[in-house]
Amino acid sequence: MVTKFELANLSRRKRTDLMGIRFDLSAQYDFFLEETYAKGLHAWFLNQIRDYDPEFSAYLHDQSATRPFSMSRLNGESLGDNLQLIAGKRYKWFLHCFSQGVTDTVLEWLGDVRPSVVLIGTCELAIERVSVSLQPYCYLDLLQITRQNCMILSFLSPTVFRVRGAYLPLPMPRNVFHSYLRRWNAFSKFEVDLENFLDWVDDFVVIRKHRLATQRVGTARKSIVTGFLGSVQFAVRSEGLFHEGYVHLFSVLGFFAPYCGTGSKTTYGLGFTLLSEVESPTSTFLEKQL
Question: For the whole prediction, is pTM greater than 0.85?
């Protein structure tokens, strides 16, 4: 099987800070992946980068740093706590990047190595196609987007926030926008005062409607966390519209959300986010929506 790489438009850009890549995969045989399989996807990607660019790989492995990429879990049917892969069936996996360094390295790796297989432990998935899933932008582009005082975000994989040593499975506005602004400040070079903006969020950003469910999911260290998934409409109260700069930042961070993901463990497939409404949440959310 010859893998199709449909990334020509990306390679012609002068600068790209943010992008999303879709991998269309096919199972070579029936297989059951343990519920912590996302750590295998995470490890495969980092091992690929290590082999291609050891110096940049060391940067990505830095546990003290905010990592400038996020990823999805695989779409598919669960059987108990395992993900059931069926021979010949196609699956989707998404890798999102939000710094120029990781974006450039990923594009060079894909262009030079042209990987044909994803290995998750002993499970082999053939890569049939690699294409763009989120349009490429630089951070300056995002600052030009139109201001909005309302948005719908959808969370397609279990989403949690680390709060005071525990995991919180609720989309509280302060926690949601804190997770975006922390990553924005780390990589955009347009740093914003964190606490002042979050105080404004506390006072003026509300949840207008939601359609949510909770789901337990295995994480990288074989622990189980409960996260939320579904759609939430966030809105700025009329009393908060006087601060035009924060309303604009609210809009920018909503546009940024699909690239960086939401909450904790986004490099292991949690907090996978879309800027749109989706159907009612189920355990096969990703398969139905993408």
Answer: yes
